[in-house]
Amino acid sequence: MDTTEIISHLSKLSKKYHFVQEELIHKHNIHVNDARISVFTKCYYIVDSTYVFFLIRSRNLFDESWWASMIDQNLISREMTDPQQKTFIYGFDSFMTSSFLVMLLFAVESAFRLIYSATFAKNPPVNFSELYSGLLPEIGLSKYIELLKFASLMRNTLHSGHYIWKNDSVKWRDRTYYFEKGKSVKVNDVWHTLIMIAEDVCEMLEKVVKSAAILKKKEIIDASYTDVKDQLKFI
């Protein structure tokens, strides 16, 4: 995917998260500070902020006049060389790639912990894989275990620069992905893969929240939602 395609897909992805959330609020009368709603809020914040990052990338990072403007404002050293500029862009891209999946899974894990506690009336497991492997079968959504395993392995690989654990593999959307120690995972296009994961996470979250066992809960309060709202007051 080129930058324009990524921006387009992120825009559509944000609308998906918004649409599902609005339906849940209005059709099922779930409050905005409920974990079943706030998880969508957190996810589209991540998608929307990544969208903005790519807009900045496309409009500025390859525009020499922007770099000149930053230098004139003493925001960037006049001594920055062309190789250093390319390193800066590489770092920017690396940050976007890893942080997108790290933050997306953080939002999912946070919501799953609250939903797990409400479902089983006990503290959730510390390990994320034990958390989703315990919750998803309980509500008839075992197939998404592979999605979250895939997403977690991708996150860990991108965060570390290469895969550092014992060899593993995961099958998702009729394709098997191999994770080999000391190597990067082989995907046709990283952002195509990340957006695919985010699309499927949205589908999974919708099915989790709409499952009978979860939907019937009176409330699953997400105390962190208040913190998010408070932070937005200062923007």
Short account of what is shown:
This protein is mainly α. The chain has 9 helices and 2 strands; from the N terminus they run ααααααββααα. It is globular and about 60 Å long.
Structural Rg:
20 Å
Q: Largest sheet at a glance?
A: 2 strands, antiparallel
- Tally of helical runs: 9
Strand arrangement within the widest β-sheet reads 1-2
Low-confidence stretches: none
- The H/E string reads HHHHHHEEHHH
Tell me how many strands there are.
2
Give the CA-based shape.
globular
Q: Into which percentage range does the β-strand content fall?
A: under 5%
Q: pLDDT average, as an integer?
A: 90
- Percentage of residues assigned to helices: 55-70%
Structural class comes to mainly alpha
Ends apart, CA distance between termini: 31 Å
Structure commentary:
The structure is a single chain. This protein is mainly alpha-helical. It contains nine helices and two strands, in the order ααααααββααα. It has a two-stranded antiparallel ribbon. A hairpin with a 2-residue loop joins strand 1 and strand 2. Helix 1 packs parallel to helix 7. The chain is globular. The two termini are 31 Å apart. The mean pLDDT is 90.
List the helices and strands and how they pair.
Elements: H1 3-28, H2 35-61, H3 64-72, H4 82-120, H5 128-138, H6 144-160, E1 168-172, E2 175-179, H7 190-210, H8 212-215, H9 224-232
Antiparallel strand pairs: 1-2
Which properties best describe this structure?
9 helices, about 240 residues, mainly alpha
